[in-house]
Design a protein that fits this description.
The chain has a domain of 252 residues: Amidase signature (AS) domain (Amidase signature (AS) enzymes, Alpha-Beta Complex). Helices cover 38% and strands 14% of the residues. The protein starts with 8 loop residues before the first helix and ends with a helix. 56% of the residues are buried. The structure holds glutamine. The site of glutamine has 13 residues, from loops. Glutamine binds next to loops.
């Protein structure tokens, strides 16, 4: 039998439907690999051995009975552990939710199951998705499969490591400021941060609601597109979700795709970029140009303020969203650190102090500060205005009436994967990893991260990726150019 763990999700679904192999065999192959290797990588917080086998058997039975099982028939998926599943623990990588068990399936999980997917388990993340390395998880360490002395990136580091290590062909992540894009680049996999509103967040533990999106992580652009097709769409349970047309990949000819004009923002040419990233980006651009794609320089004058804006707006939303976690509800703090007090207020102070890690506490404090009376206008209201300027920069760059570009080509991060501990002592250094991703979220745009190849870094080699940023609701342009790139010989 072919090596099932090396197949794409599309090949798996085809093979399962044609009964070349069973969903159960596929599930066993991935579970076996997880069992053998995840002790070293640490991608999963929980593996659903029994439930995944049962789901796979259900798919095989339905295929045996001649039923149509959906586009992801028998495809194993890893799910970031800030997405709720009925009957499964959902921790968000935090001690405060360590014992919380979901009572319903998030819309994305329901859609995956309805499409025939098999959910293998829940993956590690920075606590409440706050971080760029997965080192802020309170529940475990995840290593980069390409070099286990380095971080996988974050906050969806468990999901990207799982795909890179062939523990699952596809995974779900969430992205508030690069948490799909950055770890995808660090782990050498494909990641889509969809347009704001493209995918329902019902069942996603909210971090910053005006920025959060759920998106697919995969080994190929085609697989990311296949999962996106399944999870996208309007959902009555998420008022921000919308429906819109999405062309099939096969509807665009290579000639049409080559005709798309690609913009390169002048402002992203910053000092201090790692040589490997510069090399990778130059190689990717040359490959596009050899295919006939035209590049042109553009300007996004306000993007330099993106990180400052993000670190006002995001903590403000975090402080509101996380107010519900008091360390008593949602499983509570049940171990021997449970505080004793006869005063409810004091109890909450103590349980929240124990339950939240230092990064989460820092952001709640910052958020409470920028929203407090007297500071609201000085910080929060001003940041909202600059956010608008950033979104307007992109709108101008993409404006067809003004001869705008179709897609923007950009780095994902200034460096490849860094070493454990390199940035944990300096929060600002960690925050600066997001200088090329934050603006995409502030403007609500889609971004597809595509790996180039590995480049020499120190004594080893590490993956480098680039991102294609698109117009709102135009994921099809990103998938089109992404597959054109992926399919080209060199
Ligand atoms: N690095 C970002 C942060 O720490 C990532 C947030 C995200 O996208 N979930 O806030």
């Amino acid at each position: 039998m072919r090596d099932l763990i090396n197949l794409t999700a599309e090949e798996i679904a085809r093979g399962v439907c044609e009964r070349s192999f069973s969903a159960r065999e596929v599930t066993e192959a991935f579970l076996g690999r997880i069992r053998a290797m995840d002790g070293e990588i640490g991608a999963f917080l929980a593996v659903r051995d029994g439930a995944a086998r049962a789901e796979a058997d259900g798919i095989d039975r339905r295929i045996g009975a001649g039923s149509d099982v959906g586009p992801l028939a028998g495809v194993p998926v890893a799910v970031k552990d800030n997405i709720v599943m009925s009957g499964e623990r959902v921790t968000a990588g935090s001690r405060i939710l360590e014992h919380y068990v979901g009572s319903y399936d998030a819309t994305v999980v329901k859609k995956l199951k309805d499409a025939g997917a098999v959910i293998l388990g829940k993956t590690n993340l920075d606590e409440f998705a706050m971080g760029s390395s997965t080192e802020h998880s309170a529940l475990g360490v995840t290593k980069n499969p390409h070099d286990t002395t380095r971080v996988p990136g974050g906050s969806s580091g468990g999901s990207t490591a799982a795909v890179a290590a062939h523990f699952a062909p596809v995974a779900l992540g969430s992205d508030t400021s690069g948490s799909i894009s950055l770890p995808s680049a660090f782990c050498g996999v494909v990641g889509l941060r969809p347009t704001y509103g493209a995918v329902s967040r019902f069942g996603l533990i909210a971090m910053a609601s005006s920025l959060d999106q759920i998106g697919p992580i995969a080994g190929t652009v085609g697989d990311a597109a296949a999962v996106f097709r399944v999870i996208r769409g309007a959902d009555p349970s998420d008022a921000t979700s919308v429906e819109y047309g999405l062309e099939e990949l096969s509807e665009r000819t290579p000639e049409e795709l080559v005709g798309l004009v690609v913009g390169v923002p002048r402002e992203f040419n910053v000092p201090g970029m790692d040589p490997a990233v510069i090399q990778g980006l130059a190689a990717a651009r040359k490959r596009f140009e050899r295919l006939g794609v035209r590049f042109t320089e553009i300007s996004l004058p306000h993007v330099q303020h993106a990180l400052a804006v993000y670190y006002v707006l995001m903590p403000a939303e975090v402080s509101a969203n996380l107010a519900r976690f008091d360390g008593v509800r949602y499983g509570g703090i049940t171990d021997n650190r449970q505080p004793t007090t006869d005063n409810l207020h004091d109890l909450y102070l103590k349980t929240r102090g124990i339950g939240f890690g230092p990064e989460v506490r820092r952001r709640i404090l910052l958020g409470t500060f920028v929203l407090s009376s007297g500071y609201y206008d000085a910080y929060y209201a001003k940041a909202e205005k600059v956010r608008r300027l950033i979104a307007d920069d992109f709108a101008r760059a993409f404006d067809p009436a003004g001869g705008g570009v179709d897609v923007i080509f950009a780095p994902v991060t200034p460096t490849p994967a860094f070493r454990f501990g390199e940035k944990t002592a300096d929060p600002l250094a960690m925050y600066l990893s997001d200088i090329f991703t934050t603006q995409v979220n502030l403007a609500g745009l889609p971004s597809l991260t595509v790996p180039v190849k590995k480049y020499a870094v120190g004594s080893g080699e590490l993956p480098v990726g680039f991102q294609l940023i698109g117009r709102k609701f135009r994921e099809q342009d990103l998938f089109g150019l992404g597959t054109l790139y992926e399919d080209s010989p060199c």
